[in-house]
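Submission sheet (multi-component)
Chains listed below:
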Amino acid sequence: MKTRRSPFFLCLFLAMCGSLLASDSASTATTPAQKPSCCATAPAPKKDACCAAMNTAVFSKDSIYQLDAKFTTDAGQPFTLGELRGRPIILTMFFASCGYACPLIVSDMQTLRAKLPLEIRDRAAFVLVSFDVARDTPAALAQYRAQRSLDAQWTLLHGNNDSVRELAALLGVKYKQETDGAFSHSNLITILNAQGEIVHQRTGLQGGLDEAAAAVH
Ligand SMILES: [Cu+2]
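Outcome: structure written.
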């Protein structure tokens, strides 16, 4: 008995082929992927899934856009890192109740922002991702945004354990919750290019902001 293949399975097949190609060869990182026909023709929910898979295929394995990690903004909206694609990113992983290092890092990100030429500053995305998945709920992050007067150019993200660990591994961020609930963690400001690849990291809590600003394009 013959069955007709549905557009959904065709879409899935094309998406899988795209992923395989991306992991097999670094050369695919710079070659734009063929746009599966399903992206143009499938109904909305399938189109999104298909195109999301296609988009991961055009970036190198070092790009944060290879991650399928899902986050929630401080406004309670679902968010994937792919939404920042095409913009330079200044990103830090942090926790909102940190009493020392994280407030200094956020201040440094604000200083760095002021150092950027206006044209770059307008395009840049400033991102804070919390590794305190239990306490830094979207509501807690919204409170942090208000406290620190962070405007719409800042994206504050809550994620589950897997998403946060996946991102931390890619960025080289280490963190560990201590018995008092606070975290010991790397002090890193990461600069990513429009393709989501790391171009610079400011390590520690002092200096290096001119170099970091120069890396933002
Ligand atoms: Cu901290």
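Remark: The pocket of copper (II) ion is lined by residues 94-95, 98, 101-102, 185 (CB under 6 Å).
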